[in-house]
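Q: I have two molecules that I believe assemble together. Could you output structure tokens for the complex as a whole instead of separate predictions?
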Amino acid sequence: MRELERKSRAAFDQSVDSLDAATRSRLTRARAAALEKLRHQRPAWSSTWLPAGAAAAAALVAVMVWQGDEPAAPRAGPAQIALEDLDIVAGLEDLEMFDEDEEFYAWAADEASEGVG
Amino acid sequence: MTRSATLSAALPHGGSGDTARETIVDQGRALERFLAGIERRAFRIARIALRDRAEAEDAVQDAMIRLVRSYGGHPEEEWRPLFYRILRNRITDQQRRQKVRSAVMAWWPGHDSDEAALDPVESAADPGNRPDQELEGAELLARIEEALAGLSSRQREAFLFRNFEGLDVAQTALAMGCSEGSVKTHYFRALQALQRVLGELK
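A: Yes, here they are, computed for all two components at once.
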């Protein structure tokens, strides 16, 4: 299986390297179009609402301190994903394996010992 | 004018606006580097999954826009799996549309059922400077693409993300929206199936 992985990856890399100029050009334009979105985007804290937002945040902290509560830190990171990207999570997983599959366990152990992924 | 310079000129100057402008310019530079480094591989993956050049380009552009708009403020190390998650969702939506379109067209008089099949000439890589080696690689990739088409969508995704894109198990799990155990399962099944179809690679 290692040989299959290695050769298929090499063939894919080669196809990426030899992508035609027209496609590369269209991808560059697509990237530029995507980055244009940043021009119309401002961090919330930089807007004209900054003073009002700061005052509201200060008031909130004051109330929390006064009540002696620890604010619950919002969990940032990979788990924080837009709702529209969660459709797959709702789907049922195809859990067809693990049971009595010696070949899989051998492969998984091999993966772990080689430090892959 | 460079992209960063364009961004810089477009943003307000003075006071807190300067800090905001610098933040956005820095973010723009980082996003541009990231997208430039990933766009060709992402296109090839979308092309293999969708089997259509124009749809693959649209999918990659949409994924770029979504990443910039919704996740540009996330830490850079999260961009890659998030980008592929967005692209994966976009590909899935497009595949659903393709199925509906095929079902409708099947009822259309004179419809050629092979119309959507992969064009081997169009899908072949540009031969470039080393024709023999690259042709061999292109032929191998064409065989792999045909074999991938016979896998379940989850197995195909696991193979595309793990093997072709080189995402690790955790990143692939995020991109596919499933557990790491499922990623290992689907990837292993994909390898088994491909080996059965392709046999020993020369």
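A: One point stands out. The CA atoms of residues 19 and 107 of chain A lie 34 Å apart.
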